[in-house]
Amino acid sequence: MVVPESKDKLFHPPDDLQRDAHVPDFNSYLEIYRKSLEDPEAFWKEVADEFYWKKPATGPMLQYNFDITKGNIYIKCMEGAKTNMCYNVLDRHVKDRNLGEKVAFHWEGNSPEHHLTITYQQLLSRVCRCANVLKKMGVKKGDRVSIYLPMIPELIYTMLACARIGAVHSIVFAGFSSESLCERIMDAQSSVLVTADGVYRGEKLINLKQISDDALEKCGEKAPCSVTKCLVVNHHAVRTKGGTSCNKLQTPWDMKRDMWWDEAMADSPEECEPEWLDAEDPLFILYTSGSTGKPKGVLHTTAGYLLYTSLTFKYVFDHHHDDVYWCTADVGWITGHSYITYGPLANGATSVLFEGVPVYPHIGRFWEIIEKYRVTKFYTAPTAIRMLMKYGQEPLQKFDLSTLRILGTVGEPINPEAWQWYHEVVGQGRCPVVDTFWQTETGGHVLTPLPAATPLKPGSATFPFFGVEPTILNEHGEELEGEAEGYLVFRRPWPGIMRTVYKSQERFESTYFRKFPGFYVTGDGCRRDKDGYYWITGRIDDMLNVSGHLMSTAEVEAALAQHPAVSEAAVVSRPHKVKGECLHCFVTLKDTKEFNQKLVEELKKQVRDRIGPIATPDFIQNAPALPKTRSGKIMRRVLRQIARNETDLGDLSTLADPKVVEVLFSQRSEAA
Ligand code: WTA
């Protein structure tokens, strides 16, 4: 890697940012990067020194086997150390750093009239109260707690309360269906579910308690449901509508199982001694789509995740004490875990926590919030940028965005047009855009620019973060040097990488380590250009990325196939102006069934109900037959080209019946 002197147009860091930056230029980046690979022990030890360890480590900073041919895959960080995540992100600031009065979160509700300010001291007290409530409900170290909450402060309280008592949280994004929630509760075998009565998302009122009850009922269909207690935040009834009298929801209630949050917290003590955990004790499970359709419980542990989220946050957003940081993701995704909760709090940062949606009650809501809280660092997804671009510059011009210094994106490749708009219109040409590539599995950023150090190329996630060693392999597992395109893999672990798939080490090893022994396989394609910049080209497995949300073809296909009229379904993605990709579904109907608009609506609803609104298909096409190989494997490549109307299909010799393709092309325009 050399200091980029490229023929491409580079966007260089602004001088004023470089002046007081943690990593002020590209040479410093290279120097630190080299050290992090040559002496990881010293590098990570220095990072660990900032935190509180009840007992120091007896083992090295990192121990691992990354080579499946040599035995089981494992990663361990700081063996022998005892610590507590919650203590490090809260008590340490309040007790040792005198930051009790500092604002941890500016909570901004769905409606601009609802907002709260939460200091570190307040956060600590509320987390302790919640921890005591969970203990009273019988939750012990190692127990799983499922959390199905919208973006409200109680979501943060609950996750940190789990961390405090050593319980393992499993947060399920509150846009998921009861079916998805049930599946995740059953896999984790959680003993407690924390949810809310309801929430407004924009103008839509969602009855979360009803969805939760449906999920628990489904869980109980085959075996007794593991959840014995359900804690319900009275959010809609009390907070959003100013009193129960305005409560528009019928909140179903089970006297034996359910408990209102307010009542439970009222007499709960504000002190709670943290549970001192082993460095490798689990911190949380977060489910992510798997190519078989069954979600994978990605497991992250304590010490390594703390070091990694904390360090990436500090460097990638060049965090300073007086920053106001806003990440618009939902805590239900990994971005929210790492860069709303743990990373920022580990740094003692002040963040905005936003419950609502970008265009409610008006299309300038994001910009209004940036002005209101004087946001300095802003982190969002390409899909949000593309959606807001549609409204032009006018909505931004009404607000003062001059406090912004750094912009970030995550979730999917950002097209250069959206990058330029973000840079020019939102950042007024002044703010570097950090395009951060990472995954639920990686725990934190792995390819990313550093804002004051890295010359940017729009659309490239640029270079590896400290301690991360990427490489590109061809189909045969051979490493490609220089300019190249192939599979993105990593040669060694960093502290924040996942440790296993919950209850399935076998799936962990086969998904990430079997294809190319010695490497962690991301599942993403990648190109390295002549200047050494990395460009993510998208998923190369059977995964789809819609609005930055990953889902598997199998998951959507299974939902469609559950409809009585469908005999077979195949799902591919096609480009979408706002969402990046959208779903184009091919369905083969049972003999007697007719393809019509009513059926299309039913199928769309079916997918929405089974998985959640984010998975709603944009197109459903009737497919009298699907293109298959002679061995019966659906050729998704061909379907993808049909969906995209690309007529140059290349080699079709492996197809069992090439005529199928013509038929599908001719009927493409009827997709609805
Ligand atoms: C994609 C989200 C290009 C990628 C943090 C990855 C990206 C998947 C980027 C993980 C980026 C994420 N550029 N693609 N900056 N960031 N991706 O687990 O395909 O929800 O494998 O984690 O999103 O999605 P996940």
Automatic annotation (TrEMBL):
SUPFAM superfamilies: Acetyl-CoA synthetase-like. InterPro entries: Ac_CoA_lig, ACAS_N, AMP-bd_C, AMP-bd_C_sf, AMP-binding_CS, AMP-dep_synth/lig_dom, ANL_N_sf. Its EC number is 6.2.1.1. GO terms for biological process: acetyl-CoA biosynthetic process from acetate; lipid metabolic process. Residues 555-633 form the AMP-binding enzyme C-terminal domain. Residues 99-500 form the AMP-dependent synthetase/ligase domain. It catalyses: propanoate + ATP + CoA = propanoyl-CoA + AMP + diphosphate; acetate + ATP + CoA = acetyl-CoA + AMP + diphosphate. One of its GO terms (molecular function) is propionate-CoA ligase activity. The keyword Lipid metabolism applies. Keywords: ATP-binding, Ligase, Lipid metabolism, Nucleotide-binding. Residues 29-89 form the Acetyl-coenzyme A synthetase N-terminal domain. Belongs to the ATP-dependent AMP-binding enzyme family. PANTHER family: ACETYL-COENZYME A SYNTHETASE. Monomer. Interacts with TFEB. Interacts with the 'Thr-172' phosphorylated form of PRKAA2. Interacts with CREBBP. This is Acetyl-coenzyme A synthetase. It comes from Oryzias melastigma.
